Please model this.
Amino acid sequence: MLLVAVAAIGLAALPTAAWVAAVCAAAVVAAYVVAGVGLRELGRHLWGLRWIIAITAIGQLIFLGPEPALANTARVAAALLVAALLPLTTRVDDMLDALERGFGPLRRIGMDAERAALLLAVTITTIPVLARLAAEVREAQRARGARPSLRAGIVPFVVLSLRHADQLGEALAARGIR
Model:
């Protein structure tokens, strides 16, 4: 987790120049290869970020121009792609233990390290679940012969997401976690 944070900070510290996009791309490819995840998974993650990348690039182009837009969009995409490696390469139990140890010193100011660690671990592991639910809604739309659209898919997605949240809450309550 520290490595992801250091990578994100390192990429953010680079100057706003066009060559930063190449550095970001090389860093992401290297991270996926070193992690043993592979370039196919990188392509899948990149495809999943396409709208975030497009919206970021358009906003940056409008307000800053082409070179800063390229550099800033590459930095955002690289940080998200590297962060996506964390749940793929680290078991939830290991993540939870690391977060508890990391939050340990904050107990002195009254922070419940176990609860904070659990909250972050649940959040990290819920993101892929929500992506899967969105894919299921799109597939259901296609199966009905409808063209997938955000407008028609938002209500079923919210319903499925709330159902997942209820199930997660019940599972946590059954384990005595409030």
Remarks:
- Residues 16 and 34 are 27 Å apart (CA to CA).
